[in-house]
């Protein structure tokens, strides 16, 4: 049964704020180039090759020299460096971003903070151009910084969805933002595909990869100007729940403590959704971040083949995000996301059986990923927005963003550990099924109507 409650008295002026929606979309376009070109395609294989050069000079495998690479005295396999880097970035992000959310909720002009984080992240990503030879430590540090700044910017960006889109419009707005992001990321990746494949001007493969990563950083920095300038006039309606005379640090700490108490005591459905999201999003993010590594190291595909596949996934995901948004408009976002998790489980199971050097089965798998990828992510964002208490959007989206794209924790840790123990990525990929099963089971138990009521929000027609 559907119904629509009266909007709360202190709800944002959605009609007036709708003028910011067009500018809001562009940040998906801006940051997705980094997520796609660097995070999904190039960073994993490139940093692995740098790590192998440091730990295994003159060898084609890391099996005989796994103890030659050390982090704080702990030996690691070069093939595990990329997932371990993502894992560490997640642990650090989980701490940093929660504080960021409390700070953002006390800011009057959120676009200013969005721009600062975006440009610092882009600067960190641009530094990857200088990762050459055996400088795997520099590559790991820069990727960690870029990931944290990306997450900090997305805390602000996602929280603004509650100010610019009414509850009944959020599935559509969120889906279109994700779709535009996939389109932008795909366009730049197409250019980089030509660069890495053709290697004009006698470029080496390493130089072509480094230029491609630099181009993603510049894309991020330049296109972030549009949402920052376009939403500069958007003022925060947040009312901090701590004393007005507290400073930004002490006030944020007090507000953070209040957030956890409030979540546990008054918003159990929101907490259950976050727990479900922790599991299934970790599975999604690990598949995304490890796909090129799996294809290169386990299935023996060339870098150009992997970029072509990810490029195809980007454009399929553009349509997939819009398709899932339309489906959610008919059956509700919660049912649509649950169905997508079933499809993710089948996709991961099929990945285990893809034969080595057989590109067509891997291509079909990539198309399936593209169809479910955008929809599951976009609708999760809009679903969560309904469960966020009024005037505390950044605080709660900080919790959400700590588990968002590029910040998987348990998934990448499991992926890296399974590889280190078995030296096969096939067992590492199949182990990810547990995240979709657990996430789906928990999500099915969320009472969204009750959660929306607990948050004091307007009930959408469908959920």
TrEMBL record:
The membrane spanning regions, by residue number, are: 81-104, 111-130, 136-157, 178-195, 207-226, 306-329, 336-354, 360-384, 425-443
Xref: Pfam families: ATG22 (PF11700)
What membrane topology is annotated for this entry? Multi-pass membrane protein
Compartments it resides in: Cell membrane
Q: Which GO terms describe its cellular component?
A: plasma membrane
* Listed GO MF terms: transmembrane transporter activity
Where mainly located?
membrane
State if Coiled coil is listed as a keyword: no
Sorted alphabetically, the keyword list is: Membrane, Transmembrane, Transmembrane helix, Transport
List, alphabetically, the SUPFAM superfamilies matched. Answer: MFS general substrate transporter
Domain of life, source organism: Bacteria
Q: Does the keyword Transport apply?
A: yes
User: Residue limits of the Major facilitator superfamily (MFS) profile domain?
Assistant: 269-463
Q: Give the protein name, as stated in the record.
A: Major facilitator superfamily permease
Question: Source species, please?
Answer: Nostocoides jenkinsii Ben 74
């Amino acid at each position: 049964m559907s119904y629509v409650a009266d909007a709360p008295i202190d709800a944002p002026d959605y009609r007036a704020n709708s003028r910011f929606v067009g500018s809001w979309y562009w940040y998906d376009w801006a940051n997705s180039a980094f997520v796609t070109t660097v995070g999904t395609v190039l960073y994993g294989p490139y940093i692995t090759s740098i790590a192998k050069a440091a730990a295994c000079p003159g060898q084609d495998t890391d099996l005989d020299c796994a103890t030659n690479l050390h982090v704080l005295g702990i030996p690691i396999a070069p093939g595990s460096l990329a997932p371990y880097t993502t894992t560490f970035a997640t642990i650090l992000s989980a701490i940093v971003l929660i504080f960021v959310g409390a700070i953002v909720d006390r800011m009057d002009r959120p676009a200013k903070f969005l721009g600062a984080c975006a440009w610092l992240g882009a600067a960190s990503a641009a530094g990857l151009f200088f990762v050459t030879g055996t400088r795997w430590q520099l590559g790991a540090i820069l990727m960690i910084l870029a990931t944290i700044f990306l997450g900090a910017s997305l805390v602000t960006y996602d929280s603004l969805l509650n100010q610019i889109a009414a509850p009944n419009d959020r599935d559509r707005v969120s889906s279109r933002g994700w779709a535009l992001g996939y389109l932008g990321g795909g366009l730049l990746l197409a250019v980089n595909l030509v660069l890495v494949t053709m290697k004009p001007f006698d470029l080496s493969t390493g130089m072509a990869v480094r230029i491609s990563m630099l181009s993603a950083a510049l894309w991020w920095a330049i296109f972030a100007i549009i949402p920052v300038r376009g939403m500069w006039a958007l003022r925060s309606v947040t009312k901090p729940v701590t004393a007005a005379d507290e400073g930004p640090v002490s006030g944020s700490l007090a507000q953070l403590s209040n957030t956890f108490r409030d979540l546990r005591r008054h918003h159990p459905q929101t907490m259950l959704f976050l727990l479900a999201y922790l599991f299934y999003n970790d599975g999604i993010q690990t598949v995304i971040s490890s796909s090129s590594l799996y294809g290169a190291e386990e299935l023996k595909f060339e870098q150009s083949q992997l970029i072509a596949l990810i490029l195809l996934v980007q454009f399929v995901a553009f349509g997939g995000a819009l398709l899932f948004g339309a489906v959610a408009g008919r059956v509700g976002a919660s049912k649509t996301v649950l169905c997508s998790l079933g499809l993710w489980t089948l996709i991961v199971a099929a990945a285990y059986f893809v034969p080595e050097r057989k590109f067509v089965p891997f291509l079909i798998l990539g198309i399936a990923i593209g169809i479910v990828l955008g929809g599951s992510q976009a609708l999760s964002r809009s679903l969560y927005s309904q469960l966020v208490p009024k005037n505390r959007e950044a605080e709660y989206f900080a919790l959400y963003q700590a588990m968002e794209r590029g910040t998987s924790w348990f998934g990448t840790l499991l992926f890296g550990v399974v590889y280190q123990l078995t030296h096969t990525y096939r067992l590492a990929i199949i182990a990810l099924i547990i995240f979709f099963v657990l996430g789906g089971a928990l999500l099915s138990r969320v009472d969204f109507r009750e959660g929306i009521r607990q948050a004091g929000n307007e009930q959408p027609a469908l959920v």
